[in-house]
Amino acid sequence: MKLSTSFIAVALAFSSAASASASEVQERGILDNLKPLVSSTGLQLLTTKLTLLAHARQFLKFSQLSDGTRAFGSKGHNATVNYIKTLLDATRYYDTELQTFPYLFSSGEATFAVDNSAVESQWFTYGPAGDITAQIVPVANLGCDAADYPAEVEGKIAFISRGTCEFGLKVALAGAAKAAGAIIYNNQPAAVNGGTLGAPERPEVGPYVPVASISGDSAKTILDQIAAGATLTGALHVDATTETRYTSNVIATTKGGDKNNIVFAGGHTDSVPAGPGINDDGSGTITILDIALRLPLFKVNNAVRFGFWTAEEFGLVGSEHYVTSLPAEEAQKIALYLNFDMVASPNYGYFIYDGDGSAFNLTGPAGSDHIEKTFEDFFKSKKVISAPTEFSGRSDYGPFLDVGIPAGGLFTGAEGKKTAEEAKWWGGEAGVDYDICYHKKCDDLSNLNTEAWVLNSKAAAHSIATYARSLNGIPRTKKASVANNRVAALSYDDRRHYSCGHKIESS
Ligand SMILES: [Zn+2]
């Protein structure tokens, strides 16, 4: 906090005008012209782990306002948004905007016990709250058809296998059969990892009932006992809140620079309900915030815009809202979009979005290849190996790709495992997740690798400075039709069931 305030003080000294009278605006314009043109080395200077960590400590404090989370609509998230807006406003270098809109929030927990012995279980997004103690009644087939539900399921707990149709349909069919609750068990030995009913309600089928998922292994024990003639009593307890909450993106655009050629950088400000999200995506958010607070020391040729997105974890909601409410002629002014989502993973890799499609065969709009190369050149200049990561649109750059805006970005890895070769390149532990605290409570200050964070922050500064000076290599003709983008072949619905590259199961 201390360091960042001093940056603002420096920036303010440059800008000087305390109120915006006409002569002072003119004066500020003259002063801005005296500033040096932004450069890669200039904007990389003063990137320190002390500054980055000072912001991260603030984010962690904000999460403590709402029980350890910065999920959208929580006090912790609102405090994050206010913090960013206040710091940016204080520079007087940006026109800032809070883009506020309503969205359905859903969070909960489930516990399940059979004849008083606890069975590990998980809640489904949009699953209603409730307390049920009743007999467990297996449902025929995969529970995708009303006829699969026997009459005796009424008032009992419907026991349903995963498979073929959506979770939400099964739960609504259980409700239509007047079941008191439902358990969906995995069709594989492991647990269902993160599940959603997909839609907030399905009145055309039936009412949702309280529901939890359990592993295939746990289900086998239960089904074997029932098959042997036992009558089992299940106790299902679901705590859940589903309600409309207002939430905001923060958009900040430099007052200076060519606004017909905007260089756009973004990251998401929300975490998952399960944790404080200090790496995901505190790290990316703070990376661009820190750059945004240093940029006022310079002048820019092209305008720079920062987007701090809300509700990414509910399916790219904030960035999608921004892009879909943008008039076509405004979208045309955006030259490119740079995304920073998870850039300080503890067992990190230096991954760059594969915008040219060379590694994963998903190519972005023309110019995405140039962005990838700009990042590659940066890592080469630092004698650090980098590797491509799939350009799937499964973070906030997805909506930008949909309207033909070239994009790129950095990523240090989530739940994937580091390979032996990668451990040779980057150190760390092979066979271990890049981020063992991904989407968990332990995604806190100790979950940050500051060496990776500082280098990625410099890479981000390099890309922003490079394009704020010149858009050479980025096509500025009319955007190509979306149909020409390989990435657009992935449906939005497919993408929105991801958050930070992590699949949220819906069936
Ligand atoms: Zn993320």
Characterization of the model:
The chain has 507 residues and is an alpha/beta fold. It has two domains: 2-93 and 259-470, Aminopeptidase (3-Layer(aba) Sandwich), CATH 3.40.630.10; 105-242, Glucose Oxidase, domain 1 (3-Layer(bba) Sandwich), CATH 3.50.30. Helices cover 33% and strands 23% of the residues. It contains 15 helices and 17 strands. The strands form two sheets. It has a 15-stranded mixed β-sheet that branches. Strands 16-17 form a two-stranded antiparallel sheet. Helix 8 packs across helix 14 (450-469) and helix 11 (368-381) crosses helix 14 (450-469). Residues 1-18 and 483-489 have low confidence and may be disordered. Bound molecules: zinc ion. Zinc ion (ZN) binds next to helix 8.
In a few lines, what is going on in this structure?
The chain has helices at residues 2-15, 22-34, 40-44, 49-63, 75-91, 167-176, 216-227, 278-294, 317-324, 328-333, 368-381, 398-402, 420-426, 450-469, 492-496, and strands at residues 94-114, 117-119, 122-125, 130-138, 157-161, 181-185, 195-196, 211-214, 233-254, 258-268, 302-309, 334-340, 351-353, 387-389, 407-411, 498-499, 502-503. The protein has 507 residues and is of the alpha/beta class. The protein has two domains: 2-93 and 259-470, Zn peptidases (Aminopeptidase), CATH 3.40.630.10; 105-242, Glucose Oxidase, domain 1.
Task: Jot down its keywords.
507 residues; alpha/beta; 33% helix; Aminopeptidase; Glucose Oxidase, domain 1; 15-stranded mixed beta sheet; elongated; 17 strands; binds zinc ion; 2 domains; 15 helices
